[in-house]
Amino acid sequence: MNIMLIDDDDAVRMMLQDIIEDYNLGDVTDSLGEATELTNELLAERRTDILIIDMLMPGIDGIQAVNRIQENFAGKIIMLSQVESKDLVGKAYEQGIDYYIMKPLNRNEIVSVLKNVSEHLRLESFAQTLQNSLLSLTPQATPAPNPQKTIRSRTESQLKELGILTAPGAQDLLNIMAYIERNGGQIPALKGLFTAVAEQNGADDPAREAKAMEQRLRRTIFQGHVNVASMGVLDYTNPKFEDYAPLYFDYNDVRSTMRLLENEEKPTTSQVHINMKKFIHAIYDTAHREK
């Protein structure tokens, strides 16, 4: 992983670089004392995977710098700060940061966060490669009418927030949202819904495809569940975690998964109750509210 450090405190940058090198967490491509020269071009030139940036710095502060680059930066952003204000922390997350670490820095926390971030990046890269391979083997669908494009765009935004836009069942969810939208927001029983979507997509055996769709969705929703639980482990005050955990999943299940992650245990699908009906309703209701 290529990591860029930006902090006006030389000692902080030296400490971060030592930790990264000691634990083989990546390569530090830049160690900057200010954010005035931070651009998407610089990030692309350095092939930056992870940006670690301080919140409060002279000139351009961390939030301003992130706001300037986050729309076109595909990597992960970790923000450092001594500020404990929940409003400022919330503002930082709104600007697109992925993780927030309080100063003074703790070596174990830095190692844990960077390992988690690196693992998420590897999973996203693998999923994207897999999806591209599948798309190259699948005939491209006819462009959907404008209303479906709208619901698709809003759904994609939610799936991206949950870290599952490139997951195997993401396309199924997009097809399901388009079907529900065309049917006036009515959501039938899941078995009928999956079969109807399979028929709509021209499956030779709709019943068989509906079963395969259910399995893909179960794995994808489980991945989203683990992503949200990981978010809570890293920062329980993360506004995204506070919103997403009860909205899309069973909150008690999320807390159970958080305990597993805190004990460095790997959650499995058998340990989590996947409520697909709740998840699909929440995705559609949220997309519809954002109309």
Give an overview in words:
By secondary structure, the chain is of the alpha/beta class. It is 59% helix and 9% strand. It contains 12 helices and 5 strands. It has a 5-stranded parallel β-sheet, with helices on both faces. The relative contact order is 0.08. The model is unreliable at 142-149 (pLDDT under 50).
Which properties best describe this structure?
5-stranded parallel sheet; elongated; alpha/beta; 12 helices; 291 residues
Instruction: Give the strand content.
Output: 5-15%
N-end to C-end Cα span: 38 Å
What is the helix content? 55-70%
Question: What series of H and E elements makes up the topology?
Answer: EHEHEHEHEHHHHHHHH
Major beta sheet, strand line-up: 2-1-3-4-5
In oligomeric terms, what are we looking at?
A: single chain
How would a textbook summarize the main sheet?
A: 5 strands, parallel
Q: Can you tell me the residue ranges where pLDDT is under 50 for at least 5 consecutive residues?
A: 142-149
Q: Report the principal-axis shape.
A: elongated
| Number of helices, where a helix is a run of at least 4 consecutive DSSP H or I residues | 12
Rounded Rg: 21 Å
Query: Which class of secondary structure composition applies to the elements?
Result: alpha/beta
Mean pLDDT: 86
* Beta-strand segment tally: 5
